[in-house]
Amino acid sequence: MMTGLKSYILLLLSAIFLVVCSTNTKATVHKPKAGDEVSTTLVTGSKDGIFSSRASYTFNVKNATDAPQTGTVSYIAVTPAGVTVAKESRMVNLSKHSNNSFDFTVPEQKPGFYKINFMINVSDYDDTTRRVFGVRPEEIQSQHGRPADFDSFWQTTKNELATVKPQFKMTEKTEQETENRKVYLIEMRSLDNITVRGWLTIPKTTIRNRRFTTLLALPGYQVDLKPMLGEDNDIAIITLNVRGQGNSRDVIHPKRPDYISLNAEDKNKYVLRGAIMDCIRTIDFIYSRPELDPKRIEVSGGSLGGFLAAAVAGLDNRVQLVSSQNPILSDIRNLPNQEDWPMYDLHKYAGEKGIKFDKVLDNLDYFDIKNFAQNIQTPILLGIGLLDHLAPPNNEYAFYNLIPGKYRRIMVFKDLGHEVPTAYIMKDGHMMRDKFALF
Questions:
Q1: Among positive and negative, which fits the CA dihedral 281, 277, 295, 202?
Q2: How many other β-carbons are positioned within 10 Å of the β-carbon of residue 94?
Q3: pLDDT digit string (tens) for 280-290?
Q4: Which CATH architecture has domain 2-21+146-435?
Q5: pTM for the predicted model, two decimal places
Q6: CA distance 92 to 128
Q7: CA-CA 20 to 30 A from 366: which of 70, 107, 180, 238?
């Protein structure tokens, strides 16, 4: 069964993730330009780039040229805000056809994450390797509290949703079915009486009254989710397009850059308030269906979908398992780069609307995932990349550390950005099968 699970979750994560801008973050070996024969490899002193005190690295340099190379190898470590905390430079003389290793230890730092660049500048070669390391991240705490009326705001919002008749609708799409799966377009009324849509695929079965485990997949930023088809015969898959995305754009249809800021000046009208309720309404849908088991629901998403999954975990204890990969909008007031997405777009929106940015931040406090964390009462797996500039590790840990300890697990990937690897997907799949006794 795991082969099928792996195949469709790989497709799922590729569909729901957003990488706003591409980054070449995976390479650990820096190869020379054509005609050069100097290369470097950086080895981190811990498997996940996290240290209890001093970070350590080995910088390997191979000189395969016919000439010696002279110059320097060096590093510089800075805070997320760009303040230098440590640096070192060493003169080197690399013999021709030689392999050289240089060990560096960064002086002990306060708990948190730090950017570190390793540089080589020699006769015929210059290069920089960029990494991030963490020091005792379990001690990271946000300096910003949550609104006093946070819980009452969301309870009022859920009460409003409950007044909307869902008008659930399923339409079989026989032209899209496969040998082992039926495909349905699903529709429902959500907050503000807006119709949202998605897809349900169910394994074909001859067993009467069978109820399936359900995987609810939530979308990345402006991703149009399609029906997900898997080989597993024991899992139903719902792919939801929240309002303003995919086939749920008939009422709310902003341009792609404008979605994150739509009505950000009013917490009662902000687009993500409705989007979160669209996810809650979909759980209502699962509960309404005789073929879906309400006691076996996993919610999964990456980027914006990771945000939505985290928010659902804090608002709805009907979910039994949550997978949140690189969730955005954590510890929003502490996002380090105000010129990067999403802060740039939010600043731009405030300027165009003539709104004080502090007003926007006050409203976004109700959507900061760290403020949902303490309410989470279901197992949640969090996946983060240390090179992620959209969901920086400092901010992710500000969320993670507030989740009650017995519910949380985290996987940290030192060489990745806004993505998770197969190892995470397989771990998620094993957790799902173990949790729901799918053997």
A1: positive
A2: 23
A3: 999 999 999 99
A4: 3-Layer(aba) Sandwich (3.40)
A5: 0.92
A6: 16
A7: 238
